[in-house]
Amino acid sequence: MNYIKSLLLLSIFVLAGCNNSETESSSLAASEEKDDLIHLSKAQFKNANMEIGQLTEKPFATTIQSSGMIDVPPQSRAVVSAFAGGYIKNAPLLVGSKVAKGQRLVTIENPEFITMQQNYMETVAQLSYLNSEYERQKIMLAEKITSQKSFLRAESDYKTALARSNSLEKNLQMLNINPAAVAAGTIVSQTHIYSPIEGSVTQVFVNTGSYVSPADKIMEIINTDHIHLELKIFEKDLLQLKEEQEIQFTVPEASDDTFSGVVHLIGTSIDPNSRTSLVHGHIAEEDESNFTAGMFVDAHIVTGVEKRMALPENAVVAMDGKNYLLLIENETEAEFEIHPLAVKTGPTYNGFTAIETIDKLNANSKFITKGAFVLLQEEGGGGHSH
Fold this sequence. Notes:
Layout: H1 2-10, H2 22-34, E1 38-41, H3 42-47, E2 51-54, E3 56-71, E4 77-81, E5 86-90, E6 98-99, E7 104-109, H4 111-142, H5 148-174, H6 179-183, E8 190-194, E9 199-204, E10 211-212, E11 217-222, E12 228-234, E13 246-250, E14 259-266, E15 276-283, E16 296-312, E17 317-319, E18 322-331, E19 335-343, E20 345-349, E21 352-355, E22 366-370, H7 372-381
Antiparallel strand pairs: 1-19, 2-22, 3-12, 3-16, 4-11, 5-7, 5-10, 6-9, 7-8, 9-11, 12-15, 13-14, 13-16, 14-15, 16-21, 17-18, 18-19, 20-21
């Protein structure tokens, strides 16, 4: 603020003047009379730390505009559900909780778990007998002591029990119940559900005491270590895209900063409704920690570079719906004669703004490139019309 105030005080448009007296007042009066000329003394130019520059050819990026969101790869997002229904006995985690792979998430209780384990114990117990009978009938059939029918019955009973045992064992494993412990006589009414990935809890769909079926979601976990951009590109722009092209993007709802990334994968199909295709972009490593999945982004993909005549962006002053440059019409030992010139501007890139209206200008034209805003605003505020 002190810097702005000093510029305001040092500008010649303060009617009371600053460091000079009647001479500067008459200069100001002269500028009022000439209507579109501003007189600026060399002393004021120096004291206000202003700068002069000329039109310079600068590289400007040609870009494709798009929008999309921050997302994570499929393997970094897990929706957790139960393999069997039950009542939530314990759900200690909240949205935002960090979890490790294999960490217990919730506990589910269901009397059917007891029945399933009982059936497994009985099947395992029968399996030992049926296996012995099957082996005995096989030997007796070889010695022609028993009939083929008796052997086939023993074989069928054994293999049916074996299949049932294997099926129940797999079911118990999916419920995170140890089949070996059940076979040894340990039966439980509860089972735990564990996290399949490392990450953070982003949604919890259950409460303690609620009933969940196998189709119900219990919670969602996302790992943001490998977040990326998913951008929608219109069909007409697809042919301009290549892998490794630079992406410049913003998160309008969260920050005014511009972040960077690169094109990694380009979609090979087009949505028939929106006529767009998806482009997958990698975010610069130093920026990855700034985001979370689901954020909306505005993006520009850099497809090339073109040379344009430009001035530093501070040389352009927006006023009354127009853009102005402060063109130095004449320079004497004591002062500058400055003409505010309305121009049409192009994009701003790397601190420079492209100037479209250059027919009235030439390579030798000089402009105020630092302090232009304060000069023109103060002159406008003093009632002078450009």
